[in-house]
Design brief:
The chain is mainly beta. It contains 1 helix and 12 strands; from the N terminus they run ββββββββββββα. The strands form 3 sheets. Strands 2, 4, 5, 7, 8 and 9 form a 6-stranded mixed sheet that branches. Strands 1-3-6 form a 3-stranded antiparallel sheet, with no helix packed on it. A 3-stranded antiparallel sheet has the order 10-11-12, with helices on one face. It is elongated, with a radius of gyration of 29 Å. The termini are far apart.
Length: 168
């Protein structure tokens, strides 16, 4: 009995978080008595049991390398799909259940962005010199706060002071 393998959506196995336009399916068949695909059928559902179909191509002459489907998926939704292939030797083969999950698509981004506390300054502030821990000959460094993130610059402090003075 034949087998369908390498089933992909837009050339990706089970993609998650993509804007899938156009929607293209592909698959490969092996181990069949028949040498050619007579027709194929792609079914799409929101359930892995396929009790309710969102889309069905019906038996059609679909290209197994890139079968383009005119289906308009909803944003942030997981869909399940499978393909049934009929060969020229009257065999019917069904693929394993595959899935794809759509991205936000046209939905606007809404979020609470992480920012600094308004009491903190948002530009480099050089505060104190510290020495590199574990060094016998402690070299000076500069401690800075930049966008609420602490940075330590090792080396000659004057070198870094000169650079930051021009970038402020």
């Amino acid at each position: 009995m034949g087998e369908i393998y390498a089933a992909k959506t837009n050339h990706i196995t089970n993609p998650v978080g993509y804007a899938l336009k156009p929607l293209v399916f592909s698959w490969k068949v092996k181990g069949c008595k028949g040498q050619e695909q007579r027709h194929a059928r792609i079914m799409i559902s929101k359930e892995p049991t396929f009790t309710t179909l969102c889309f069905d191509t019906g038996e059609a002459a679909l290209d197994s390398r890139a079968a383009r489907v005119e289906f308009d998926p909803q944003p942030c939704t997981r869909y399940y799909w499978k393909v049934l292939v009929a060969t020229d030797a009257a065999e019917t083969i069904e693929s394993d259940v595959q899935f794809f999950e759509t991205a936000k698509m046209e939905e606007p981004w809404t979020a609470q962005w992480i920012t600094c506390d308004s009491s903190q300054q948002r530009h480099p502030i050089f505060s104190k010199r510290i020495s590199r821990p574990g060094q016998l000959h402690a070299q000076g460094c500069i401690f800075a706060v930049w966008d609420c993130t602490k940075h330590i610059f090792w080396g000659k402090p004057a070198k870094y002071r000169a650079k930051s003075a021009t970038s402020i």
